[in-house]
Specification:
This protein is mainly alpha-helical. It has ten helices and seven strands. About 35% of the residues are buried.
Length: about 260
């Protein structure tokens, strides 16, 4: 699924972001970079940031995960194997894009301290694998490892009533009026505790294709409904005078401001 959705869905997302002049961040499996080097090169040359999402969506975290897909992910129990595969990802990034991938999201968002240490030692600067909701924190960046420069920027999840928490784009497709209310409250509460509000939006290329895919939370809202949700969310952010940044730019802003992000 990731192969055909990357090939078909990524250009749709790129076109939408380009129409607003927004640089997106594409956390990409190395197998997709190998198979579609021209598409990934175009993303990078168009001002979009390309990060790492593992080699072939293996499970790099410390425990197996329950997934909704028919095929089960490969679980990597040995740290040496994880490090070798991630080094392979780095080599592929260098070969295709001519640079080291500096940002990372773990497949299935499954990450533990061992994996954090591995990606820090391999030269990654930013990880975005944690959810603000699971950490009981807002999405303000912090340093997850003592003595390491790796910065964590948690993705932003909203609690939509009493049901399952939803990431921003999913929330805006599910119930846009309630999502906007919850987002404005989230921004307000963030600014009461932090010098600025940071939100991280995530989605997959297949979400912009017109095909229904079973999902553990619901039948995932896809196609035009998801495109409309992203348009609405971007316009709301524009109304709120936000600055659109990739994770590396967020970290640079923190350094320039002198804010202590731990």
């Amino acid at each position: 699924m990731s192969t055909w959705s990357f090939e078909r869905g990524t250009p749709l997302l790129k076109e939408l972001l380009d129409s607003y002049g927004i640089g997106g961040t594409f956390f990409t499996q190395a197998t997709a970079i190998e198979r579609f080097p021209e598409l990934v090169t175009e993303l990078s040359q168009s001002g979009h940031h390309v990060g790492c999402h593992g080699y072939n969506h293996e499970n790099y975290g410390g425990k197996p995960v329950n997934v909704w897909t028919k095929s089960k992910p490969v679980f990597l129990p040995e740290n040496i194997i994880k490090k070798q595969l991630l080094q392979k990802c780095i080599d592929i990034h260098f070969r295709v894009l001519g640079k080291h991938p500096e940002t990372f999201v773990a497949p299935f968002d499954n990450i533990d301290e061992d994996l954090l240490l591995i990606i820090a030692d391999l030269g990654f600067k930013v990880d975005c694998s944690f959810h603000n909701y699971s950490l009981e924190l807002n999405s303000f960046p912090f340093f997850p490892l003592d003595g390491k420069s790796l910065v964590e920027i948690p993705l932003t999840v909203l609690q939509m009533g009493t049901d399952t928490p939803k990431n921003l784009l999913e929330a805006f497709a599910y119930n846009p009026e309630l999502a906007e209310k919850r987002l404005r409250a989230y921004v307000k509460s963030s600014l009461e505790s932090y010098p600025f509000c940071m939100v991280l939006i995530t989605c997959h290329p297949y979400e912009f294709l017109d095909v229904k895919i079973p999902h553990p939370r619901e039948v995932l809202i896809v196609g035009d409904e998801k495109v409309n949700a992203l348009n609405r969310l971007i316009r709301l952010f524009q109304e709120m005078k936000v600055e659109f940044l990739n994770p590396l730019q967020v970290v640079q802003k923190i350094k320039e401001s002198g804010v202590q992000s731990n």
